[in-house]
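pinned: reference chain
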Amino acid sequence: MELLPRSPAEFASARYWDRFFRQRGQRAFEWYGAFPELCPVLHKYVRPRDKVLVVGCGNSELSEQMYDVGMCEDIVNIDISDAVILQMQERSGSRRPKMSYLLMDMLQMDFPDAHFQVVLDKGTLDALLTDEEESTLAKVDQMFAEISRVLQVGGRYLCVSLAQAHVLKKAVEYFSQEGWVVRVHQVASSGDNQQFVLPVFVYVMTKFRKIPGSAPQILEICPEEQDKPMRVESVERLVAAVKDRQHYALLCSQLSKTPCREQVFLDLCDKESGKPRYTLHVVDSPSLKPSRENRFAIFIIPQGRETEWLFGTEEGRRQLATSAGFGRLVTVALHREQHYEDMAGIQAELSGKVMELAPLGLPAQQQVPFLSVGGDIGVRVVRHFDTSPLSGEYVVEDVKGDGTCYFRRLIFLRNRNVVQSEARLLAPAPRPGQKKRRKDKKKPNPAEPLAAIDKSYLCCEHHKAMVAGLCLLGGPDPLPASLAVLVVGLGGGSLPLFIHDYFSQAHVAVVEIDPSMLEVATRWFGFSQGDRMQVHVSDGLDYVAKLAAEGTSWGAFWYDAIMFDVDSKDLTVGMSCPPPAFVEKPFLQKVKTILKPEGIFVLNLVCRDARLKESVLATLRDVFPLLYTRHIEGEVNEILFCQPSPEGRRDPVELGARARALEGALREPGRPWDSSYVLADMLQAVRIL
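pinned: its structure tokens
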């Protein structure tokens, strides 16, 4: 039996609906939204003494159920199908004497003005507004005008809809321009029995007298999980908020049916501010055959550790899920702008929502474990927040690492999952007269400022490799008598500080384009200038070009080592470090001009675009005859060591010997040295391109 229309236009045809209801018979037809789902919303806006008009009633049981539960009895139902009106009169006439069914076109109603307190529409607007043709929009305008006419001031038009973007936009624009208050409710789903994947919404349009002039629009959305509506500033933002909830419903439906081949992520936002509160990644391990108890788990990433490889990369999360032994693992990252009490509070907040991401067949009452590292949510304290005209918004924050160590980090919020600079913090010194307790189990107070930066510790693996590259310098002595170093890109200053402190014969020049970063490095990362350390606030491109021009005129070479550790502000390019202009051939030739013949140029390359990376490497090989590369394990970073003469080539044995000799020279008695930092190890994986 064919019940669907041949074209969308037939949804507005009385002939189609007559045929539809005759063929369907007495079985109630509910487009979407059963009464138990709609009841909580309807109870807010329909009072027992209200006079209610239901437009396009069909043979839905909604009016009957409202009548039977005592929500309201004075209900008038209208429809353009003679067949369904006769059917409903027979079904309800004697049992519900105060409710009536009338054959009437909602585009031309016979009721007097201001006759009803409520107009209820369940799917009728969706059926009428099937396209955006001029004739269709004219009918919708006529429908809205008639609804407005028969409603009293203060009355409510309740429209149950799937909220397709063009339908929602049309309704909201029309009534908000008329001065009505518009609120959109998301209807709570009934779980496994719901007919549609997409959620159902109820538009609540409350009629007010139109005020002459441009009165402010009042637009609100009320998600299913909360009663308090959220104000939105425009029709576009309201449509976008509904679309977000539709996408989430589609995602949950997809995840409930099949394992996801690629990791899926989504943000859960704070109800009050609308800002992201949790970032979730769904990781499936189809190759695992977990027990019934190990099918689903939630992993809370400690605050401040979301940038670590294990938690911040797709490969790391996959390894985490495999190690945990769960078929589906949802990792949860906590946002720095939000406050979290403890693990119990997070669990209570997330328990209901994460169950919507559960795999197929998981029993509804099964206890889902919440996992973490060490059982706590970590520590994060934002020390400083500011905005730079060049780098945008940034934060300096202290976080607790793995174990008892604390770290200070610089994060650019335009790329919040990347640590721009990092330094280890020394524990605060005891106050005068304070005795050191042997077993102090009290947790450190994160709000208490920590004493100092540990300048002996290089947090970033790529910085360790860049320093180790100094072993490639020419000359018989691994620790040169004098060393002139140019570092382009200051950040927190860890790299130039380490070179300055451990190479006592080094003179370091740093070029930084952003004056805000010099202030950050000085105030928060223990950086300072002196006779052997000078910062030039300038564009690295201009600075190198100026030196190259001066050097060419009087034949001087400037530097033993040049290091580029400069990020790109343009996130649309597949290379985040350095900016493309820094690896163009004419500029690299200028770099070579200011580099001593036995010197070394060290470049931190972060490039996800394979073709672009190959192009960069080819350009480097054109300029520098000797090119070494060192990939940083678990990261995108690749450190390139470039030398202007092929005669400086060293075999692995010689390179290891020079690394051990240099490290021995740097480890002076009484000077702290990070025991995990072995120069020879950093150079083991170096290969010649």
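why pinned: Residues 108 and 146 are 7 Å apart (CA to CA). The longest strand covers residues 595-607.
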